[in-house]
Amino acid sequence: MTIIDKLASSLNRRDEVPNQKLAMQIVDRNDEKAVEELVGNLTNKDREIQSDCIKVLYEVGERKPALIAKYAGEFSSLLDSENNRLVWGGMAALDQIALADPKTIYGMLTKIVGSGERGSVITRDHAVGILIKLASLAQYREKVIPLLIEQLKRSPTNQLPMYSENLVPIVTDKNRAAFVRTLASRLDDIQKVAKRKRVESVIAKLNRLPVKGDPTTSPH
Questions:
Q1: Which end of the chain is more exposed for a tag (fewer CB within 10 A), N or C?
Q2: Is the pLDDT of residue 13 over 90?
Q3: d(Cα 39, Cα 42) in Å, to the nearest integer?
Q4: pTM more than 0.85
């Protein structure tokens, strides 16, 4: 069987279990040739095969980012696709490799942010995830923090609690006030009490954080 034969659509399966199992097999075997085959089929004429391939690839990336990192260019190209499944799948893959190849991902930020703002909720979630990861690295922090804050100002209120919770680890004494101010400015926009309380909890947590410097610079 080829890799394509093992995809859910090739097996006439409507669930994702075959794709998830395949991803785990690829990771266990460090199967670079399988990854190459999957990337090559992102342009397959069968849209179901395309969708299965990107699913397996970002599942591989979640477990072992280095296995898919060199294909950042191909994943970036998917952001231009008319197939929304490929757009958010491509963004998910880029999110998985953001810390494996931050220099390349940083160079794509304009496209990533633009696609996140135009795309689906999942696309935006992963775009914000990329910003948070890059902001954890000292060499990109000053450029990325303003982009992240801009996303917090404009993000859907349903997503804001998750974004605010996820960014807590990157907050430093230098940027804390900007994050607190931005999150506080959105509280009146949040209609659901439970979601507003989550953001309020993050604000309180940020205000309690001990003074600290910037996190250690990554070796990348």
A1: N
A2: no
A3: 5
A4: yes
